[in-house]
Amino acid sequence: MAPETPSPSPVRRRWRAMVARVVPRSRGWPWAALAGGAVLGGAGAWPLAAAVWDTLGLTRPPLAPLALTVAGAVLAAAGTAGLARRRAAPLPLAWLIALAWVVAAGVVAALTAGAWLLLDTPAWEPPEVLRPRDLDAVATRAFAIVAGLGAVALLVINYRRQRTTEAENDRAEVAAAREETRLFTERFDTASQKLGSEHAAVRLAGVHALAHLADDAPHDRDELVQMVIDVLCAYLRMPYRPEPGHWPGVAAPEEGAASDGRGAARFEGAGAGPDAEAAGPGDDGPLASSGLREVRHTVIRVIGDRLRADTRWRGKDYDFTGVVFDGGDLHGAVFSGGRVVFNEAVFVGRRMTFNGAVFAGAQVSFNEARFLGRRLSFRGAVFSGGRVTFHEAEFAGRRMAFTRAAFCGGRVSFDRAVFSAGQLSFDGARFSGGLVTFEDTRFSGAEVTFDGAAFSGGQVAFDTSSGTRPDGLLPAVEAADPPGSVLLPAAWRPDGTGTAPAAGTAPLD
Predict the structure, then answer these.
(1) pLDDT in tens, 7-42
(2) 400: Cα within 13 Å, side-chain hemisphere
(3) Fewer CB near the last or first residue (10 Å), C or N of the chain?
(4) In sequence order, what are the beta bridge partners of 257?
């Protein structure tokens, strides 16, 4: 147990109370400085003034009184400044002018005393008779003193006016910023309410209102743009069922996409459950379905239009987790920063395109996404930086293409992805930098082709992949420069069988 701290004795307590009464508190230091300056200034100025009055006939310079005078002036100025700083309202103009005159007189006196000391304190020899020329010189100097005092007063007035103008400008800027924020909030609330309407036409108006609101956001308030993007992405993440013919388990075989049997369960888990928006069978007809689909496609189109142009929408975060895409167009979109998430998204419908999209610096993930639509295209897309992942994604659509895509930087990963159905083309793709990995990827059922692909830099790893070797891959690997930049499983090499077993399985005969 720690010993108790002894309480101070009565004598010590009385001493502390007396010190607290005598010594000024920290909040009263300006008054203490002002009083000390007056005392020191008086002590130093009295003998100095007496010596000057005595016709400056001193045998040695009065250094001690001069030093006391200067120290007193400094303390007085500091105390006055402290009082002015602590005042709720600014000092009256007359006080400021008087203070400026005192400071100016002190500066002139200090300069005069310094020059007098440098000249070895010469004695003053007054003239015996004042001639008219001497009187004219005195009058000229008097007028100069008056003009100097007037100039000092004018400087103080202009300074006060400038400070007042700056304060008014600052208040006006703050008021304008508050007004902009208030107007933004009102417009945001109105547009958000429209987005929650039961009528598709009103929702469309809300989408465009939010988009224009983000475009009009103040230039130093990028978080407002992100807020609008978050609302639009949240709308897409809401439960939704496409019209019949666009999702697995309901579409006819010739209409829907191929699947490995997990389609219905995975699709229901991606935001298309029984409580989804009414757009499926048994609702009030195809008009409601078409209206809801048009609103969602408009959101995608608005985002794509802003990402194609050089706007503040670039470099932001987009969260499309679990979104059901039954079509859309993001061609030419530039993902130059931020984080873009398509995890567990489901791509169905006739067409979803990322043609010519640029992935340069962003963190884009399609992890566990399912590509089940008729057509998915990354034709001409450029992967030049950042990180793009397709971990555990399933490619089972009818036609999917990375044709003429350029992998020239960053990292692209298809690790543990499954190519289970349909056609997937890497024809004409260029692998010239970065790292592209197909670790534990299964090529089982899909027709994957690498015809005309070129490996001219970076590294591409298929060494842990399984399934049937893609068509055209071996000639492209043999022409790779430098050799060895593409890693293949043993069964995919020229002397292999062309089919690599999955990890943990016996080799195929």
Answers:
(1) 556 666 665 665 455 444 445 555 555 555 555 555
(2) 23
(3) N
(4) none
**384 in Cβ contact with 412 (< 8 Å):** no
Q: Does this model's pTM top 0.70?
A: no
Task: Identify the CA nearest to 111 among candidates 79, 136, 148, 84.
Answer: 148
Decide: helix, strand or coil at residue 184: helix
What whole-number distance in Å separates Cα of residue 499 and Cα of residue 505? 12
Helix (H, G, I), strand (E, B) or coil at 457: strand
Are 334 and 311 in contact by the 8 Å Cβ rule? The answer is no
Contact by Cβ (8 Å): 466, 443 = yes
pLDDT digits (tens, 9 = 90+) for 380-399: 999 988 889 999 999 998 99
Q: Which of 109-118, 191-200, 319-328, 474-483 has the lowest mean pLDDT?
A: 109-118
pLDDT digits (tens, 9 = 90+) for 40-93: 555 555 555 555 545 444 444 555 555 656 666 666 666 666 655 555 456 677
DSSP string, 9-31: PHHHHHHHHHHHHHSPPGGGHHH
Tokens 């310079």 belong to residue:
61
Burial class of residue 418 (count of CB atoms within 10 Å of its CB; 0-12, 13-18, 19+): buried
197 to each of 101, 190, 207, 354, how far by Cα in Å? 71, 11, 11, 30
Q: Cα–Cα distance between 240 and 232 in angstroms, integer?
A: 14
CA dihedral 247, 389, 448, 487 (to 10 degrees): -160
Which H or E element spans position 395?
strand 394-395
Cα angle: 495, vertex 501, 504; to 5 degrees: 135
Number of neighbouring beta carbons within 10 Å of residue 355:
18
CB distance 369 to 343 below 8 Å: yes
- 221-238: average pLDDT: 92
Angle, vertex CA 322, rays to CA 321 and CA 323, nearest 5: 95
